[in-house]
Design a protein that fits this description.
By secondary structure, the chain is α/β, with parallel strands linked by helices. It is globular and about 65 Å long. It contains 15 helices and 13 strands. Strands 1-7-6-5-4-2-3 form a seven-stranded mixed β-sheet, sandwiched between helices. Bound molecules: pyridoxal-5'-phosphate (PLP).
């Protein structure tokens, strides 16, 4: 695309921006069970207005923009209250769960460098259900991640196995509340005891659960304790832009002992420019996300969130009960909330996702990994709730049809792919995959089932290599 010579009129540009959305998933109708968190038209409009009101302000410098600073402190104050931080707890507003987790691992690493000089090869111990952003953080900050299998029935971390994985280089352990894939809460109290016994940090990843579990618990769901009040828990990440229904770009990293935050902060005056003091990763940052977040939390309040969570809980129970009656499908683990995944021993779940897509629904394919089989994930939001009966009917129809047609998903691995996997892949993996499957690697196909079935059979490092190559090509500038 060429850089334009002449500028264009705002109305023209806004119309083009709107038109570009034409191929997006149909989130506004409540047919998407991932990515979107919609608390209704009033909250949505408020969020847009609040965001716009602060879109130009710069959160980089609290002395120039005390407004952004004040909003951040208020939001973090509410987060600490919800997660029972207690006296001395501190936190920061970040751009997302990934940034919160990056900061947590950086803090843990730098703290170990100062306080535990015998640690030269730091590692963290994390259940296999732990979010990918911990592995990203480990890759970025040169920390080793020791993955521990979870219980094959409940998909919860197994405390004894977590403890066995700890060694003299371990700086931190991870528990999820909830895990994204299966929506289950790890036994955080037991993990806390282990962390105390070994004098290591414990990060509770409550990115997706943090703004949901406290309310679900209040409504009577059977949820174990997981927040900052649990002995041994030292830090917790919580997103506002998931079940907090805030505009995207809103998360938090919270520390029980606020003093730990000093290892998080970046300060630099060793150059010719202005002194940079960044508590988080971003430097220049819009005030939009924090303003929209503050307004959303204040607008909904505990009562608003309780109402939203109740809708999601009811809708989830309806869907899970219906799935329990579908012969080919089963829900993995015993999810207590609105996130869960659905597997099958007899039909192809990736074909199920495609067939549902053809009926206008989006459910999220997840590959098999370790003791978790291939599945489709659902995040059930308040905006999905009114359509639940229609959803369940369509899901039942698709399930029955796949069963009748005998679509099993156990595809043969093409010879050339199998050989490629044996060798660990090469630079032509994409072309080979395209030839083997008839899928054009430069255009996303309508149906992903063939390609998903092949990817599902690959070892994950090879899958990652191939997907990275694919995305690298997808983003090519031509
Ligand atoms: C979404 C999520 C993250 C990462 O959050 P982003 O906001 O997407 O960066 C981390 N952990 C869990 C459990 C999540 O669900």
């Amino acid at each position: 695309m060429q850089f334009p010579r002449k500028g264009r009129a705002p109305a023209d540009l806004l119309a083009e921006l709107e038109a570009l959305k034409g191929h997006d998933v149909l989130w506004a109708e409540g047919r998407v069970f991932a990515y979107i968190y919609d608390a209704g038209p009033v909250a949505m409009q408020l969020q847009k207005d609040a965001y716009s009101a602060y879109v130009v302000e710069n959160g980089l410098d609290p002395t120039s923009f005390p407004s952004c600073f004040e909003l951040e402190k208020r939001v973090i104050g509410m987060a600490l209250d919800l997660q029972q931080g207690g006296p001395g707890a501190e936190g920061n507003f970040t751009s997302g769960g990934t940034e919160s987790i990056l900061l947590s691992i950086k803090t843990a690493r730098d703290r170990a460098r100062e306080l535990r000089p015998h640690i030269t090869r730091p590692n963290i111990v994390i259940p296999e259900t732990g979010h990918s952003s911990f592995f990203k953080a480990c890759a970025y900050f040169d920390v080793e991640a020791i993955r521990v299998p979870v219980d094959p029935v409940t998909y919860r971390a197994v405390p004894a196995e977590m403890e066995d994985a700890i060694d003299d280089q371990t700086i931190l352990m991870v528990g999820s509340a909830t895990s994204y894939a299966h929506g289950v809460v790890d036994p955080v109290e037991e993990l806390g005891e282990i962390a105390l016994r070994h004098d290591i940090l414990l990060h509770v990843d409550s990115c997706v659960g943090g703004m949901y579990l406290p309310f679900a618990k209040e409504l009577g769901a059977d949820i174990p304790n997981f927040n900052l009040s649990v002995p041994g828990v030292t830090q917790l990440s919580m997103d506002f832009h998931k079940w907090g229904y805030a505009a995207k770009g809103a998360s938090s990293i919270l520390y029980k002992d606020g003093d730990m935050r000093r290892w998080q902060i970046w300060a630099w005056s060793g150059w010719t420019g202005y002194s940079v003091i960044n508590p988080t990763v971003l430097s220049t940052k819009s005030g939009g996300p924090v303003a929209a977040c503050w307004a959303t939390l204040q607008h909904l309040g505990r009562e608003g969130y309780l109402e939203l969570v109740e809708k999601c809980q009811d809708a989830s129970r309806t869907i899970i009960a219906a799935i329990d009656d579908m012969p080919a499908l089963r829900v993995l683990g015993q999810p207590q909330t609105n996130l869960f995944s659905v597997a099958s021993d007899t039909i192809d779940v990736f074909a199920l996702a495609d067939d549902m897509k053809a009926k206008g629904w989006y459910i999220q394919p997840q590959f098999g990994f370790s003791n978790s089989p291939a599945n489709v994930h659902l995040s059930v939001g308040a905006s999905n709730a009114p359509l639940v009966n229609e959803f369940v009917r369509d899901l039942g129809e698709c399930e029955a049809s796949l069963r009748e047609r005998g679509v099993t998903g156990l595809r043969e691995m093409p010879q050339e792919m199998a050989a490629l996997f044996e060798s660990g892949g090469d630079g032509n993996m994409l072309r080979t995959l395209g030839e083997a499957t008839g899928v054009d690697p430069d255009n996303l196909p309508e149906r992903m089932d063939t390609i998903n079935n092949l990817l599902n059979q690959m070892p994950s490092p090879l899958r990652d290599k191939l997907l990275a190559e694919y995305v690298n090509r997808l983003y090519s500038n031509d």
